[in-house]
Amino acid sequence: MTARILVVDDVIQNVKLLEAKLVSEYFDVLTAMNGEDALAVIEKEHPDIVLLDVMMPGMDGFEVCRRIKGNPKTSHIPVVMVTALDQPKDRVAGLEAGADDFLTKPIIDLPLFARVRSLVRMKVLMDELRLRESTIQNFNIDSMSNPSQSVSIENARVLLIEDYARVADRIVNYMEGLASVQIDNVASGEITAANLDDYDLFIISLNLQNIEGLRLCSQLRSNENTRRIPILVLVDEGNISQLVKAMELGVTDYISRPIDKNELLARSRSQFRQKRYADRLRQNTQKSIELAMTDAVTGLYNRHFLATHLDNIMLNRSTKPIEVSLLMMDLDKFKLVNDEYGHAAGDEVLHEFARRISRDIRNIDLAARFGGEEFVIVMPETNLEYARFVAERLRKSIADEPFKLSISTVPIQVTVSIGVAVTGKENTTSSELLISADKALYKAKENGRNQICSL
C-alpha cells in the first residue's frame, strides 16, 4: 500500500536520504525545510503521513506537531517524530504533543517502512470513516460528532497479556488512575479472558513462555470482534525483526524494554483516544445511516447515499489521484422469483444477496442498493484486475449456493450479472463511472447472464 509522505527537516542531507529511502519503497514524497513550510504543504497537499524532525530553528517539531493535531482539518494525519534525541522524556514530549510515533536517528530502514505502512493502513480506515461522516453532513443530518471535540478516555479497560508476574504487577501500578487492567498470563497457551471486544487496548508481551506473542496478535487481528482494538506490544530493545513482524501483523504501537512509566502512559492515552474517536465515528455514522440512508429490505446503503458518497470520492481525487472501481450488479430474471413465489420471497432473496456481498468486500468498500434488483459496490484505490477478481468471487458466492425461502422446502438457484468500470487516472465523473458500469452490465446480460464484463 503506497502513500504520500511529507519529510520535514532543516538539514538537506537528511531530507534527501529519507526521500531516497522512501521513493525506493514506492512512496510518493513531499519535502519541507522548516515548520512554516511544512504546515503550508500539509494545507495544500494533504499528505498521508508526516515524518517530522524535532530540532529545527524557529518553530520546532513539537510545536509543528501541536498545530497539526490542533487543527480539525489535519488532526487525523499521522505524525512520526524523527530526531537524534533518544531519552524517554523526549519520546514522551513528542507523544504528548500528539505524535503517533517517535523514531531515533540514525533511522533503520525496516522499522521505518513497517511503521509507515502500519500508519497508512490505519489512516485509510480513518479516512473512510471521515468520508462517510462527511457524506452524512451533506444530507443536512446532524452526525452528532465534532472531530475537534475532545474524546473522553474515562473508564478505559486494558487486557495485559504477560506471564512474568513482576512485570505485570509493575504495569498495573503504572496504569493506576488511567485505566483498569486485567492480567492474562496465558498459562493454558491461549487467551482466557472473556468479552474481548469490551477492551480499549491490548498490551501484549512478545516474550511469552507458553505461546508466541506474535501469534496472539495475529489471532486478535483476524477476529472480527477484536480487529479494531489497538494492540501495544512489549518488545526487547534492538529486536528489529520481531518489531517489524508485529507491525506487519497489524500491531498499532510498541514500547521497548525496559519500560518507562511516562512513555507507557503517553502511548496508552494516544491509543485510547484514537479508538474512542474511531468508535464514535462508527457509532454516529451507523445511527444516522439507519435513520435515513439505508434500504429497508437489504440493510445496505440506498441510492441517495451512494450518489453523494461517490461524488465525495471523485472530489477527493482532485487532491489525491486514485483509481476507483465500480461494480454494477443485477440479479438475473429476478421478476420470475416475484411472480412465482411472491414479493415477500423476493425480499428474502434480496436480503440474502446483500448479506453475501457485504461479507465478501473490504471495510473501505461500499455496497448499495441501486434500485429494484440492481446493486452497486464502490471500491476506492482498486484497479480493474482486482475489481474483476472480486466480481468473480461475488458471482460464485451467489451462483454456487442456492437461496433458501421460508415458503419452500426446495432452495432456488439465483445468479447475478456484473458490469465493472474503473476511473483510471482520468478526470472521470461519478455519472460517467456509473454509465460505464451500466453499459458493461448490459453487455454481460447480452452475453448470456451469470458473468462479468468490463468495457
Strand order of the largest sheet: 2-1-3-4-5
Structure annotation, total helices: 14
Q: Runs with pLDDT <50, length 5+?
A: 142-149
User: Roughly what percent helix?
Assistant: 40-55%
Shape: globular
How many domain regions? Answer: 3
Q: What is the rounded Rg? A: 24 Å
Query: What kind of sheet is the major sheet?
Result: 5 strands, parallel
Mean pLDDT over the residues:
89
CATH class of the largest domain: Alpha Beta
- The share of residues in extended strands comes to 15-25%
CATH architecture of the largest domain: 2-Layer Sandwich
For the structure shown, list the relevant keywords.
3 domains, 5-stranded parallel β-sheet, alpha/beta, 455 residues, Rossmann fold, 14 helices, 18% strand, Alpha-Beta Plaits
